């Protein structure tokens, strides 16, 4: 399984190194890290306790797409690092840097290419900073790293599914301004998202899933009183998918769909825009963590539509806390564990 370290100025390296110290994780799968060996070595001694440092050893491997050495590692406590040197770049934690953005994109590109060659069972990507990514030269080609992976694998349609235990969310639109959402929602987009939601549930081993589709407007438009998107776009898409044998209902009022998903009435909910799905999901993850007296984001982000498994933590590079040693590895660990689970069942 491939792990990318993400933007070096963010929390990616820290949470990756911490996650690998969790009990049983090194016995559950074999890992290879895409990142800077020397930088990860420094971060290992910076963020891990002396006892944690002794749990595994990083092995430097000069990167080559044709490198066959990965299969020769028999010790689970030895983790190869496909080395992408940072050179003389000074790393200012929590700061935008084009060199770091270029590196984070390069790591994802190379992991994708190896996954497409079936040399990796899955890829778990560390968080990147989109501004650094853009300034690093990738922004001229891709909005983000998911779009890069979709383009490299020639995937026709791709979306994300947020996964936290039995609570799951997919989005029709994501990283666009709120004022653009209404005109971006089309019947074909809603149909495509419902189908991808079903594909995601198939990956999770849930056949004939119960899918709930949210409306866009308050009260799902209230029979057109608060908007026509539900009647003109969302309902026809739901009816089409139902005619294809998919167990789907909607459009439902946005304020009731998530309690009904949380209560187990539905297996997955379809949100119309980013915050409509992100807020209930992250609120749930905070509530779970609050029970343990440590408030943090948990859960994983499964990419649906790629020809290989890709999972990531459901948060960004957290520049505001980068380098402080306080970042929680829980979401990255959730992503790794989900990737292991899915790789075994594929």
Would you summarize the structure shown here?
This protein is an alpha/beta fold and 346 residues long. 41% of the residues lie in helices and 16% in strands.
Task: Please explain how this structure is put together.
The longest helix is centred in the N-terminal third of the chain and has 19 residues, at 98-116. The chain is built from 13 helices and twelve strands. β11 and β12 form a beta hairpin. The chain starts with a strand and ends with a helix. Strands 3-4-2-1-5-12-11-6-7-10-8-9 form a twelve-stranded mixed sheet, with helices on both faces. It has two domains: 2-155 and 333-345, Isopropylmalate Dehydrogenase (3-Layer(aba) Sandwich); 159-279, Isopropylmalate Dehydrogenase. α5 packs parallel to α7 and α9 (187-203) packs across α10. With 346 residues, it is of the alpha/beta class.
N-end to C-end Cα span: 14 Å
Can you tell me the CATH architecture of the largest domain? 3-Layer(aba) Sandwich
SSE order, one letter for each helix or strand: EHHEHHEEHEHHEEHHEHEHEHEEH
What gross morphology would you assign? elongated
Q: Keywords for this structure?
A:
alpha/beta, 13 helices, 12-stranded mixed β-sheet, Isopropylmalate Dehydrogenase, 41% helix, 12 strands, 346 residues, 2 domains
